[in-house]
Amino acid sequence: MKSLLGRLSDNEVLVADGAIGTMIMERGLASGKPPESFNLEQPAVLEEIAREYLDAGAQIIQTNTFGASRLKLAQYSLEGKVDQINRNAVLAVKKVVGDRAYVSGSCGPTGKFLKPYGDVETAEMFEVFREQIGALISAGADVICIETMSDLNEAACAVKAAKEFKSIPVMATMTFNRIPRGFYTIMGVTIEESLRGLEAAGADVVGSNCGNGIENMISIAREYKKFTRRPIIIQSNAGIPELKDGRVIYPETPHFIAEKAKELLTAGVGIIGGCCGTTPEHIRAIRKVVDAHQHSTV
Fold first, then answer.
1. Fewer CB atoms inside 10 A, N or C side of the chain?
2. 168-183 confidence digits (pLDDT tens)
């Protein structure tokens, strides 16, 4: 399989998968337990989810390791199982996709803040991410995705830890809120500032995920394109969740997201996928749009 960065440099648009946590909750995740508990108890569920996204046309499929750092797992007394949790997640996806898709090792926020806002030293944060990323890579991940970051310093720390392993590309995505003055992380960082920080840390692919429906993500993508030549990844939610009859509903349909994805393509986005609330049906619809776009540009 050709390298991921090589395909992006050839202006190929790749399709990533959608939500993992949403899918696991639908499969009976108990209240108070982390999604990563399935990596120990029900790895067959991870295989099932990976197969659904592969069949939908995803070319990049993430591991169920968003919260699988030692600091995050400590909230559930699972900090001693970092290696096993990350390894099982990679192996489950790898078993299904083989060489038909890239396995993306997901690394989310630790839930802790770096000093002076919190009590974690930069060196400790670096080691926490290096431990998790090392487990993902040794199990066979093809790419590392540092995702859903709001603290640029934490994101940069994670990217630098990933770049210690020189054999693997690193993607990094921030989450932004829209206010009257534009898009900012909850820590007050602009899109341009986040780009500068992620690029300086060594990220190969930059972008945004979570927190927004696809219409805001189109605006974010266009803003990214102003300031970077690196490939851009966008993974939007299926809209902002709503509570209906006691259930959380994401309002953006596969058809709606696929139609809007055309604007991500014209904005120059290199990887398009989904985040919270998106399903294999959303990814299947996006894949059709991407295929049609690439066929028309050949």
1. C
2. 999 999 999 999 999 9
